[in-house]
């Protein structure tokens, strides 16, 4: 995805909706680009038009907002829907001024508990976490999309993903809708309290799959966890995240360096 063209599409769409956007600040750049448009102060999430999760993310955010769940809301000044232009899909979200208060492990766990409580009552069709693991497995197997992954590391990722996918899915553990990637980068410290963003990764599975993305000390504040299952989920999600970093199209800054570092961690865990 060409950053310049993606930014231009977002600015054009916002302006056409009466939201002045003379400037754009890139907040995140990976499989999607997240921008803060100024002076209208709206957050634009831009993805290729063939990415079909934008409507799903909007509907899920609306349901969770109505339930009082701790999630970022869509910008109320425009109709809540995906907007398309020049091969890009853009969704528009509210901008939150950051809080200076640190999110403690207890705050993190309490916010995730509230999110899980709201998600538990949803009847929205979502992928299973094993579907997301299979996406990673297909990427590992595709040498054209992961050309820099050497054979030994490719085998390590494939065997880790395969083994732990079956180990986690085979546990007798209740499942529900999850955020999918509630890591610190997806938790905003706002003045009204922490809010989760980026709902495109929602899937169904055990809550330990979500806790695996949070800092380790958060688990001590989240009741009722299966810590053996959590340990397996930590390695599984690390293998998935490592796989995304070796995608030739990955745009995360320092992504390849992180991928190499995480491969070493997976190898150490055995």
UniProtKB/TrEMBL annotation:
Gene3D superfamilies: 3.90.1200.10
Signal peptide coordinates: none
Every Aminoglycoside phosphotransferase domain range: 42-214
One Pfam family named in its UniProt record: APH
Recorded GO MF terms: transferase activity
Keyword Signal: no
Keywords for the protein's UniProt record, in alphabetical order: Transferase
The protein's name in its UniProt record: Phosphotransferase enzyme family protein
